[in-house]
Write a structure and sequence with these properties.
Blueprint: E1 2-11, E2 14-24, E3 28-33, H1 40-48, E4 55-60, E5 66-69, H2 74-77, H3 83-88, H4 103-115, H5 131-144, E6 149-153, H6 161-176, E7 180-184, H7 188-191, E8 196-199
Parallel strand pairs: 3-7, 3-8, 5-6, 6-7
Antiparallel strand pairs: 1-2, 1-4
């Protein structure tokens, strides 16, 4: 689904990634590990097309639908959205932005909000949430998308053990349904879920 060939990226002249080659395949999970500053977040942004490589290339299957959960969300937090409005965004995809949500869409929104225990927060604004509540909201939005590939940056940061297990179950379900899942993580339990691991080294 997603292939990186000799990928490199420089920021303000400083190398962030160099010579990274990897594949994200359907019905599989790839864990990206490495110390802070090794380029894990950058790699996910390059795979998603949010940033462009300065060396090498990213190849995506035609029509590939990608869902990205970034680690830094300050731009999203600044939006005057409620929790339920934020989650519903996950059901709007390119080409379907102006459509009305169906009964199935609303059921999916309700279901994932209840699973991640954010239903009682439905009318709260994003800026009113704790770090864990905000993370659960953004996870719900990302995992609600009907994507072919899910790129998740530290998805269970600030989550309690119970919620982490729910998220891990959802990721396993996505893989079994045929999606490619790529997670950047420091969590050994999370990494153990993956079929393969790509380890990045700083410098």
């Amino acid at each position: 689904m997603l292939i990186a060939d000799n990928l490199g990226f420089r920021y303000a002249g400083t190398p962030v990634l160099a010579d990274v080659t990897m594949r994200a395949e359907s019905a599989s999970m790839l864990a990206v590990t490495g110390p802070n500053g090794s380029g894990k977040s950058t790699l996910l942004h390059l795979l998603a097309g949010v940033a462009q490589p300065t060396a090498g290339r990213v190849r995506r299957a035609p029509g590939l639908r990608v869902a990205l959960l970034p680690q830094r969300t300050s731009d999203i937090d600044a939006l005057p959205l409620t929790v339920v409005e934020c989650v519903r965004i996950g059901r709007f995809t390119p080409g379907r932005l102006l459509r009305r949500l169906t009964r199935r869409d609303h059921a999916a929104v309700t279901g994932i909000m209840e699973l991640l225990e954010i239903a009682p927060l439905a009318r709260r604004r994003l800026h009113e949430l704790s770090g864990g509540q905000r993370q659960r909201t953004l996870l719900a939005q990302a995992l609600l998308q009907e994507a072919d590939a899910y790129l998740l940056d530290e998805p269970t940061t600030a989550l309690d053990t119970r919620t982490r297990r729910h998220v891990h179950d959802l990721l396993t379900y996505k893989v079994r349904a045929g999606a490619a899942v790529v997670i950047a993580s420091h969590d050994d339990e999370e990494v153990a879920l993956a079929d393969r691991t790509l380890h990045l080294t700083a410098g």
